Amino acid sequence: MKSFATRCLPVVALSLLLAACQTARQTAEVPDAALVSSFQELGDDLSAGKLTEAEVQLKTLQDTAAGDARLEHYQRQLADAWLQRSQDALQQGDLDGATRALSHARSLMPKAPALTTGLDGAIDKARQLNPQGTAAEPGPQS
Q1: Among 68-72, 75-79, 118-122, 138-142, which stretch is predicted with the lowest mean pLDDT?
Q2: Is the Cβ–Cβ distance between 95 and 127 less than 8 Å?
Q3: What is the pTM of this model?
Q4: What is the DSSP string of 49-77?
């Protein structure tokens, strides 16, 4: 007569084999239409130069789509746009506008001070030349 273990071994082996062959259904994560629309709106706002609206949209997306890889890309683009706006304002002699735009860029990328160091120095220098906040004439840029 066969022992209990040798009679159950084929049943256990077959059960393990069947369990190993079964795979859980993997569903591809379909992007939510609202999320896709929100990222499109953010890109449109950036392209149109609507930086304040883009910043609001980015903050909303950071709350609703935390961890999405696209957020960092758009955050960097927005910081670059604010930095460009600061440079433009400085060239036009608008020191207050340059400072505000630079502040926005810094708030978006606080761990990247190298982005704003040169511009910050130029704003400080312009303020020393004209403490009222607006330069009489923008100087040549190098």
Answers
A1: 138-142
A2: yes
A3: 0.63
A4: T-HHHHHHHHHHHHHHSTT-THHHHHHHH
